Structure formats: C-alpha cells, structure tokens
C-alpha cells in the first residue's frame, strides 16, 4: 500500500484458477477493522480469474512501526450443485483446504518521486531558436547600475530646479504683462511707448513656453538614452 494514508488506499489482488474445476475462495485478514475487501469470497471458474479489491482505511502512519497485518487467501474445490458457501467451508476437511499468506507493506513516496512527478506534470519549455541564435543581452543593458541611477536622479533634480525657476519667471512675466495691460488700458492717449511695452510683454510668454517644452523634450530623450 502506497501512502499518504490520509484517504482510502486501494490495492487489487488477482486470483486465477489454473485447474479444470471450480474453486471456492475466501480472503481473511488479521486486521478486519482496517480493511474492506470486495469480494471477500466467491467462486472462480476453471481457467478464469477474479479481481479482489483490498481497501485500506485512513490512519496515522508511523514509519518506525513495522506492519504486522497479514492476509490469507483460502481456497478449496467447489462441490457439485453448490448452494450454501458457508456450509462449504464448514464441511471442508483440512486436507482439502489450500491457502496462500500475504504480508502487508506500507510505503511512503520518496521526495525524489514527488519531484519527478511534479516535473513530469509541468509542460516542457518552448524554445525560440530564432531568438537564441544571437548573443544573450548583457545584464547592464537590462537594468541600470548604481552610477547610472545616481546620474539620473541628479539630472532629475537639476531639471526640477530649472522648471521651478522658469515657473517663477513665468509668474513674474505674467504679473508684469497684467500690469502693462492695465497701464495700456488706462492710457487713453495710445502712446507708442505703451504699445511697445504691451507687445513685448505678450511676445515673451510664447517664447517662455517654447523653452519649457524644449526642456521637457530633452529630459525624456535623456532618460530613454540612459
């Protein structure tokens, strides 16, 4: 019987009648409460065979404890016109009985067997030969080392400082533009000086946006190149 023994373990016993007469059989065990035998008795025709299922009930297995359970298959030639199996065994003489004894053996699967079963259940890996013809990529091409990471962090800090500086300048220019618009709006005479200042204030904003966009593009290009 192969473990684990946390559930019912079944072992089949094949009985074959090589004679030219019918044979009655009976299966006995020294531990009837631990086993369920189906069928435990019957008749085998000449040249035929019968499968007997021996079911071991769940129990706490101790590898240090040797099994003392035994089975005995008892047989005798069937009398003609048999009607009562119990009567056959009661009336059978000792010299008419034949028996075969079997000892139970409990085995737990080895760790190597478990590993082999697990490996066999896993699907075989599929190899792509077209990708394996070339050299394998180097580790530094997949992940950044400490030096590159430090450079990237410093570059990010520098770009963030520049962005904050440009944001402050943009805010100052916007405030200056609003002030110039108010001055131009209040100047009803429409002097050339006021008009020139308003044009300079309005033209400075697009130029600043172009500079900020260029910095962001440079940041992302530098990140992908690294």
Low-confidence stretches: 124-134, 137-143
Write down the CATH class of the domain at 9-103. Answer: Mainly Beta
Rg over alpha carbons? 47 Å
- Average pLDDT number: 75
Second rung of CATH, namely the architecture of the domain at 9-103: Sandwich
* Proportion of residues in helical segments: 40-55%
Number of helices: 6
Strand segment count? 7
Reading side by side through the largest sheet, how are the strands ordered?
4-2-6-7
- CATH topology title of the domain at 9-103: Immunoglobulin-like
Instruction: Give the CATH H-level superfamily of the domain at 9-103.
Output: Immunoglobulins
Shape, per Cα inertia axes: rod-shaped
Secondary-structure-derived class: alpha+beta
Approximate strand percentage:
15-25%
Let me know the largest β-sheet.
Answer: 4 strands, antiparallel
Task: Offer a few descriptive terms.
rod-shaped, endoplasmic reticulum, single chain, alpha+beta, phosphoprotein, four-stranded antiparallel beta sheet, tight junction
What report would you give on this structure?
The chain crosses the membrane at residues 205-225. With 226 residues, this protein is of the alpha+beta class. The protein has 6 helices and 7 strands. Among the domains are: 9-103, Immunoglobulin-like (Sandwich), CATH 2.60.40; 148-183. 45% of the residues lie in helices and 20% in strands. The chain has a 4-stranded antiparallel β-sheet, with no helix packed on it. Helix 5 (146-186) packs antiparallel against helix 6.
């Amino acid at each position: 019987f192969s473990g684990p023994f946390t559930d019912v373990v079944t072992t089949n016993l094949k009985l074959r009648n090589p004679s030219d007469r019918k044979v009655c059989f009976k299966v006995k065990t020294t531990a009837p409460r631990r086993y369920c035998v189906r069928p435990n008795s019957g008749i085998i025709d000449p040249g035929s065979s019968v499968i007997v299922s021996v079911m071991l009930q769940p129990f706490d297995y101790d590898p240090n404890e040797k099994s003392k359970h035994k089975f005995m298959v008892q047989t005798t030639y069937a009398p003609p016109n048999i009607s009562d199996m119990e009567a056959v065994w009661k009336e059978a003489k000792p010299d008419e009985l034949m028996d075969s004894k079997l000892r139970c053996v409990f085995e737990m699967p080895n760790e190597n067997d478990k590993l082999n079963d697990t490996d066999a259940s896993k699907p075989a890996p599929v190899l792509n030969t077209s990708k394996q013809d070339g050299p394998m990529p180097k580790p530094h091409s997949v992940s950044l080392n400490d030096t590159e990471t430090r450079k990237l962090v410093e570059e990010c800090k520098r770009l963030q400082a520049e962005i904050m500086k440009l944001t402050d300048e943009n805010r100052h220019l916007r405030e200056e533009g609003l002030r110039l618009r108010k001055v131009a709006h209040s100047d009803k005479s429409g002097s050339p000086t006021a008009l020139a200042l308003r044009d300079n204030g309005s033209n400075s904003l697009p130029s600043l946006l172009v500079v900020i966009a260029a910095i962001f593009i440079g940041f992302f290009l530098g990140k992908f190149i690294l």
